[in-house]
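Sorry, can you check?
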Amino acid sequence: MSLKIYVDRLSQPSRAILIFCKLNGIEFEEVNIDLSKGQHRTPEYQEVNIMKQVPAIVHDTFKLFESHAILRYLASAFPETADHWYPKDLQKRANVECVLDWHHSNLRRGSAGYVFNTILAPAFGLPLNPQAAAEGKKLLSASLATIDTYWLQKDGSFLLGNSQPSLADLSLVCEIMQLEV
């Protein structure tokens, strides 16, 4: 089976997929899609992902985009993947799903809005937007507080009180690491 992963390492979701594959010994070919050069808008890349975003994968003939869907797929498609990443137990899995859904609506929106509008916009030929940055920072601060007061309020070292990381931990940590920019 051949697996191609289309990424830009500037992208938090791209990094999460690369890290997941490396941690789980999943062999893949990395295909760099330079967002700052508009490579995600080429007709060739549109054949891979009609939405023109990264990350995306092609696994044999199967194409998939959206980072959380890709992570779920990889955890299920490669049986050597440890259960803690995406538990088979339906209630544990539902809890991971809950964090993943919350991530995109909250932490991702705040982090991306803040970082893009304070630092990255000029790399894409766009002006900085202080108002959008302030809105992103507000949502980001609220999201970080929610992680601290809700998602980490159990005995384990990881989200949901787990003793080992899940797909949710990986997605959130890559998002938070983006703040180092």
Remarks:
- DSSP finds seven helices and four strands in the chain.
- The radius of gyration is 17 Å.
- The mean pLDDT is 95.
- The chain has two domains: 3-81, 85-178.
